[in-house]
Amino acid sequence: MLIVSMSLAPQADAHSNLGNLLKAQGLSHHAYYCYLEALKIQPSFAIAWSNIAGICMEWGDLQRALAYYQEAVRLKPKFADAHCNMGNVLKVGRCAWRETMFGFALKWNRVRLQSPDVSREMGVCEKLI
After folding, report:
1. What is the spatial distance between Cα 99 and Cα 83, in angstroms, rounded to a whole number?
2. β strands within the chain, DSSP E
3. Which residues are CB-contacts of 122 (< 8 A; sequence separation ≥ 6)?
4. Angstrom distance (rounded) from CA 128 to CA 86
5. Which of 28, 33, 61, 106 has the greatest count of CB atoms below 10 A from its CB?
6. CATH class for domain 1-76?
7. Rounded to whole angstroms, how far apart are CA atoms 15 and 41?
8. Sequence spans of domains, the chain
């Protein structure tokens, strides 16, 4: 019933929200197509770009994940979660750039990113440089 009602009034955020529900249920392929539909409706929807990047990251397609996170950040430069997630994609072998991404994320969202995980990850990069 939810899918039928969405087809009658297609809204990007509704497709993205459905994608989030499907992803939470372990249905990442279905979630991926919901995010794509959201982007067809509203190509400037940074959250949908970030969501689809997360799916690609989950699948191990880091090149596409990085491209999608970059698009999310291009559309919404102060999108802290996208900066942080882009840093996670860049984890292997590119720590200097990753620290820059975490720096942007931290600058725009200090409270949320004061977690032990982010501090630990940044410390790992410092040891490698």
Report:
1. 10
2. none
3. 99, 102
4. 18
5. 106
6. mainly alpha
7. 9
8. 1-76, 78-129
- The amino acid present at 15, given as its one-letter code, is H
Residue pLDDT, tens place only, 34-43: 999 999 999 9
What does the block give as tokens for 2? 């939810």
Q: Band the pLDDT of 101: cuts 50, 70, 90.
A: low
Report CA 55 to chain centroid distance, whole Å: 8
**Per-residue burial over 63-98, b = 16 or more CB atoms within 10 Å of its CB, e = otherwise:** eebbebbebbbebbeebbbbbbbbbbbbeeebbeeb
Residue 23 near residue 36, CB atoms below 8 Å: no
